[in-house]
Amino acid sequence: MESNPTKPMNTKASAAFVAAQKGFGAALKTSTNPHFRSRYADLSACVEAVIDALNQNDLALLQVTHPAETGVAVETILLHSSGESISGGILHVPASKQDAQGYGSALTYARRYSLMATCGIAPEDDDGNAAAKRSKSKNKAEVEAVIGSATSMVELQAKWASLTPDEKLLGTEAKDAKKAELSEPKNDGLDEARKLIAEAKKNPPKAQTEEEIEALWK
User: Fewer beta carbons below 10 Å: N end or C end of the chain?
Assistant: First the structure.
């Protein structure tokens, strides 16, 4: 891949890319190569791994072609809303056949590898661990909502264990506050009972005679 050292790394675009890269997933191997009987990450999987995080940080993904003999040349560009951009350089891939199918295959191949190289992602098997890595982390408000929904210490421990290390950093204060709340002894109506007893002491019921008691049953 050819690089272009004359283009400066722009401040806003660079900061946005650093933030976006934290949300990149793996390019999952969801397609199968019938010739080699192997699985690989196709172009859509590569785009899916990065596009949401890029867009959320005001970065657009562009892939432009350049003149090339006997093949294709692709440049991946990350365009920031400020007008600044980051180029991954130009990748040249020769066409296996000098026809539309050959150039089409070379173009798809070049776009895949140019995108992965520019964004710093790698293909990964489509299993449970990969899916877990791709899941988006909760923000602070979401973490606090999860912790706040706990109604017992056991439930709080289970919800805390379900959070990722980064999410736990966001929810430490909420967890401590919820823990203190759940640790407080419950009155279970004791305060109300105490009030009734105190009221009864202030205004004790009048003693009834045997005739008055008997009259209640008639």
Answer: C
